[in-house]
């Protein structure tokens, strides 16, 4: 669930340091430079990049520009191609059985470890080529006045990917605004250990 849904989970960031005005001017071009690349007709396992907020198939921002007043709005698209372990196991067994049958005809009976590895890689590649990648989209909004960034996800792997791609795209670093971090900012770093020593209160009798 994201910004365009009735509910959802969000992670808030703040940009570290000053943001050059030139970077904001270049934002649309920077997003296009790191736009999503389709992998439907390949065997690649994963692809990710920026897409338009209004249409995750739009990597050129033809549907609408990312600028929304003093906000920049865009989405992170992540496509992942997966093969079920059960399917892989089945086809690997069939391939090895076929290899044994071929070897038996030539008077051999043992499939080496290296040969099994080679067969496994070939089978996986074949199955990957037949599997369609599954798309996932995570909306993001950047307030260019206070430089707070909101991402519609709380998944650790997605957060790491977003952080890395944002830094690569804009040459800026993000700082997650977790409750503990916000509390530390309010009370000061010299009292940060007090937060670590807090214990939960039990209100139920």
Helix and strand arrangement:
Elements: E1 11-16, H1 21-25, H2 27-33, E2 46-51, E3 67-68, E4 71-80, H3 85-105, H4 113-130, E5 134-143, E6 148-151, H5 156-170, E7 173-176, H6 179-187, H7 192-196
Antiparallel strand pairs: 1-6, 1-7, 2-4, 3-4, 4-5, 5-6
What are its keywords?
7 strands; 205 residues; 7 helices; alpha+beta; seven-stranded antiparallel beta sheet
**What's the helix count?**
7
- Compressed to H and E, one letter per element, the order equals EHHEEEHHEEHEHH
Number of strands: 7
| Dominant shape | extended
Q: Kindly provide the radius of gyration, computed on alpha-carbon positions and rounded to a whole number of angstroms.
A: 24 Å
Structural class, by secondary structure, is alpha+beta
For the terminal residues, how far apart are their CA atoms?
37 Å
Mean pLDDT, all residues: 87
Helical content class: 25-40%
Instruction: State the low-pLDDT regions, or none.
Output: none
| Main sheet properties | 7 strands, antiparallel
Strand content: 15-25%
What does this structure look like?
The longest helix is centred in the middle third of the chain and has 21 residues. It is built from 7 helices and 7 strands, in the order βααβββααββαβαα. The protein is extended. The protein is an alpha+beta fold. Strands 1, 2, 3, 4, 5, 6 and 7 form a 7-stranded antiparallel β-sheet that branches.
């Amino acid at each position: 669930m994201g910004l365009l849904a009735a509910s959802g989970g969000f992670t808030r960031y703040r940009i570290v340091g000053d943001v050059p005005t030139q970077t904001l001017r270049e934002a649309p071009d920077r997003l296009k430079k790191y736009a999503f690349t389709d992998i439907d007709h390949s065997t690649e396992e994963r692809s990710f990049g920026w897409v338009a907020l209004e249409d995750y198939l739009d990597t050129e921002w033809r549907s609408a520009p990312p600028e929304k007043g003093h906000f920049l709005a865009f989405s992170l698209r992540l496509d992942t191609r997966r093969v079920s372990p059960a399917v892989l196991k089945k086809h690997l067994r069939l391939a090895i059985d076929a290899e044994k049958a071929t070897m038996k005809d030539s008077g051999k009976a043992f499939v080496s470890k290296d040969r099994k590895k080679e067969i496994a890689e070939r089978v996986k590649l074949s199955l990957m080529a037949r599997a369609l990648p599954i798309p996932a989209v995570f909306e993001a909004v950047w307030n260019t006045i206070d430089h707070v960034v909101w991402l519609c996800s709380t998944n650790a792997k997605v957060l790491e990917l977003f952080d890395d791609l944002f830094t690569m795209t804009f040459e800026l670093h993000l700082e997650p605004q977790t409750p503990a971090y916000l509390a530390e900012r309010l009370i000061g770093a010299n009292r940060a250990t007090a937060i670590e020593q807090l214990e939960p209160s039990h209100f139920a009798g």
